[in-house]
Amino acid sequence: MKYYVAILLILSLLFSCQKEPVHYDSGSNEAINQWILKNMDDYYFWKINHSGHNLSDNPIQFFQNLLHKDDHYSTIVQNMNLASYKNNFETSFGFDFIQVKREGSIQAIVTLVVPGSQAEEMGLKRGDVLLKINDLNLNADISGSVEKILNGNSLNLMRKDGKEFKIASAYIAQPGIYKAATIEVDNKKFGYVYLSHFNFDSGYDLIREIQKFKNEQVTDIILDLRYNPGGQVSYAAFCALLLGNVNPTDRFVQMVGNSKVGKKEYSFIDALSTQPDGYSFKAEDIKSKSLNLSRIYILSSKQSASASELMINNLQPYMNVIQIGESTMGKDMASINITSDNETSGNGYKWIMSPLVYQLFNSKGEGNYKTGLKPQININEFSAEELYPFGDIRDPLIQAAVNGEVKLKAGSRNEPTIEVVYRSKTALQMVMDEI
User: Fold this and answer.
1) Is the pLDDT of residue 331 over 60?
2) pLDDT tens readout for residues 180-213
3) Structure-model confidence comparison of residues 154 and 410, the more confident one
4) Which of 98, 107, 247, 371 is 20 to 30 A off residue 127, Cα-Cα?
């Protein structure tokens, strides 16, 4: 009996010595950082080092100090706090460009112009060669000046023909589909779709284009993801069901997290069910409209990331996926969105944290593509004399698909050496909307 009392006394002392979490004022850096730390402990793919962090730090800096050295993608933003968001040319000024070195000289080439943007209305086009941005000559690497340019309220461009463009900074919403067209070669019809990101705002548009392709008896699809930085896993499942010969109950993705999160498996219908609020697409309805293809051509580049790579890797067990272009970025992980509550935020704006939580694999357990997914046909689009409009048959990547060049071995093309000096690195998080 004495031993029993002694044990109870020891346990009581132990529990009394345990520290209760300190309560901080709502909206304070300490409260926000405590919320960050707890959720990172619970969900983050890597183990958090708790030492050396100061709860009074700015939350953005506090979050960044927690990240693993291999993590280049986890983010945190505060609603309405523009300083917490990272800008890029595409969403701030309506165009993007790349600097490449050919035969010793650097050239800046416009890679895309957002439909409906001020840049498009002023006449800027894909393939245009730029000489200057503001007072910077584009015959030298401008990587170190990009952040300053993006933080400006406007920018000035000079095109090679001498035309100047003054473009105001604005939030530019991109259409999901830039271009959709039917390409006919030797009595064979290809459906071409340029998809800018994986988001349900283009869901109905994509269904409409697929129905056009079916009516026109298209037999092959060219899915252009060369500048697609990713988006929602649920939308990738939507696209797969609409394009490919897959069953809704087939396993789409295997997701491996930390010891608390564990491993999860999602079929196509499971992944589709995580679509965000406001959408209610059903797998059976999508399949009734599907092309049910057994083969697909996917165009890629170093800017193809996240959900774009998921499409390539996770369709391979079910379809003949013919990848043409460059190796992809190499983002084989997905995040979740975690929003702060009122107890944390107080009267301030909400914080939204998107830490990497899962490493992704296809139904065969194939993944680990941190160095990118390599194409069967390696073609650098900048080896051509100019960049042609999306969907143009003269585009070397499209030519490779429609002319049967996929039979050639990767690297068999005789191309000039092209060195990329600058290109955008922005990648959307690949998000699971539920966990």
Assistant:
1) yes
2) 999 999 889 999 999 999 999 999 999 999 999 9
3) 154
4) 371
